[in-house]
Specification:
The chain is an alpha/beta fold. Helices cover 46% and strands 20% of the residues. It is built from 16 helices and 18 strands. Helix 9 crosses helix 12. The structure holds GDP-alpha-D-glucose. Belongs to the glycosyltransferase 20 family. This is Trehalose-6-phosphate synthase.
């Protein structure tokens, strides 16, 4: 195994198995964002290959060294489905679902984090930069620092960081804060997330914080400054623009409209089927608008793509039942032979189909109850090369900090959500254009490459500064 000067550590490797047992690159923003950096810096990526099973040797894919971390069936159940997706995920999304605290899950989480840290320590060259990703690996920064004090360590948290009143429920709150503080820079989606983190550190560990700097006492009696700051993630905007410009994608958008019976307005929701996304609130508001007669199925259709997610976790199984009951009721009450109220799709689609849907949709509904960023909101905006369409955006999604020209909503306020949907459906083209242009400028200027550049530049600067402090 060659040692690397730049190492990404993430729960998943950036590849999936293809049909013939080979590897193909997985879709997704992080993979695209890091590709140029990986290539330039002879990078390595440490992660789980996605299926439980035995050891795999490191291998090179597309010029990047991939270092697989094996997870057993038990690891997947306890560390991934348990601690990551049934404890941290609900706790960090404001306990929308009840987090479960199980000591055996935590023990597995510690054990698996150690395995990731060891793999990273082994592949990183002297003085390398290591970038740890997300809530599955919150202990890795400190474990790595202990093993390899020569490394520069960054961490990015893709989901929200909750208020202290909620975070303090966590039986292992102290270990998690200390784990994260092993990093030189701890990145969050929103300024508020970084603030919640700093507050938790002050309350729980009694460390001093100044602006975004956190003073971390060291075993030798000195202090080290870790930075906790917001770095809002983004998308590969240009690739969405190029896809939206393709004649076949535009033809597909027209075909989608046609096959829905050419309704006057198409509303769209695209989410992983997750209780954080506010799919039920959206359906409730829409169903009531049909019931009130403010909307009619002759005029509007709601397309809801709910891509399958975490299907072995109980809360997700229950959510799916609830959503499908609601959809069934709305369709049963309001469909006609020619028109459908909700076209519900519990499926995953290729990127081209998503962009065609974005182009076909007059109104995009992002009603998350809590969301780190919500990339779908940015993807919709990027795809609207015609400067038309309306984004209805929850203030509880990180994207709301940047996308101020969207129609901002509180998804808990069903009355307000209904009014916003009506306003979106009725919005004159000129106002759509004014708003969409501002939104598009933001995602063009702030794409995912800018995100990773800014993070890595901050990380580099913090290390230089730390070095000069001696
Ligand atoms: C986490 C945070 C944060 C969905 N269905 C299909 C499909 N997708 C794509 C979307 C989008 C991605 O998946 C989902 O990203 P989101 O940001 O909306 O949400 P999470 O999955 O919860 O992501 C989130 C993100 O990390 C990044 O930091 O923004 O807040 O929760 O790209 O388009 N893509 C395709 N077919 C589908 O059926 N091709």
């Amino acid at each position: 195994m060659d040692r690397a000067g730049f190492v990404v550590v993430a729960n998943r490797l950036p590849v999936d198995r293809d049909e013939v047992g080979g590897w193909r690159r997985s879709p997704g923003g992080l993979v695209t964002a890091l590709e140029p950096v990986m290539r330039e810096a002879d990078g390595a990526w440490v992660g789980w290959p996605g299926q439980a099973g035995g050891e795999l040797d490191p291998f090179v894919f597309d010029g990047t060294q991939l270092v697989p971390v094996a997870l057993s069936d038990e690891d997947v159940e306890l560390y991934y489905e348990g601690m990551s997706n049934d404890t941290f995920w609900p706790l960090y999304h404001d306990v929308i679902a009840a987090p479960r605290y199980h000591r055996v899950w935590w023990d597995a989480y510690v054990r698996v984090n150690r395995r990731f840290a060891e793999a990273a320590a082994e592949v990183a060259s002297e003085g390398a930069t290591v970038w740890v990703q997300d809530y599955q690996l919150q202990l890795v920064p400190q474990m790595l620092r202990e093993a390899r004090p020569d490394l520069t360590i960054g961490y990015f948290h893709h989901i929200p960081f909750p208020a202290y009143g909620l975070f303090s429920q966590l039986p292992w709150r102290r270990q998690v804060l200390e784990g994260l503080l092993g990093a030189d820079v701890i990145g969050f989606q929103r300024v508020a997330d970084a603030g919640n983190f700093a507050r938790a550190v002050r309350r729980q560990l009694r460390y001093v914080t100044r602006a975004s700097g956190i003073h971390v006492p060291q075993p030798d009696g000195t202090t080290r400054v870790a930075l906790a700051k917001a770095f809002p993630i983004s998308i590969d905007t240009q690739s969405y623009i190029e896809m939206a410009e393709r004649p076949d994608v535009q033809a597909r958008a027209a075909e989608i409209r046609e096959s829905l019976g050419n309704p006057r307005k198409i509303l769209l929701g695209v989410d992983r089927l997750d209780y954080t996304k506010g799919i039920r609130h959206r359906l409730k508001a829409y169903g009531e608008l049909l019931e009130d007669g403010r909307l009619s199925v002759e005029d509007v259709t709601l397309v809801q793509v709910a891509s399958p997610s975490r299907e072995r976790v109980a809360a997700y199984i229950q959510l799916r039942d609830e959503i499908e009951l609601m959809v069934g009721r709305i369709d049963g009450d309001f469909d006609t032979m020619d028109h459908v109220a909700v076209r519900y799709l519990h499926q995953a689609y290729p990127r081209e189909e998503m962009v065609a849907l974005f182009l076909a949709a007059d109104v995009m509904l992002v009603t998350a109850l809590r969301d780190g960023m919500n990339l779908v909101a940015k993807e919709y905006v990027a795809s609207r090369i015609d400067n038309r369409g309306v984004l209805v955006l929850s203030e509880f999604a990180g994207a709301a900090d940047e996308l101020g020209s969207a129609l901002r909503i509180n998804p808990h306020d069903i009355g307000g959500l209904k009014d916003a949907i009506m306003r979106a459906v009725e919005m004159p083209a000129a106002e759509q254009g004014r708003r969409m242009r501002v939104l598009r400028r933001r995602v063009r200027e702030h794409d995912v490459a800018a995100w990773s550049r800014t993070f890595l530049a901050t990380l580099e600067a913090s290390r230089r500064w730390q070095g000069s402090r001696g």
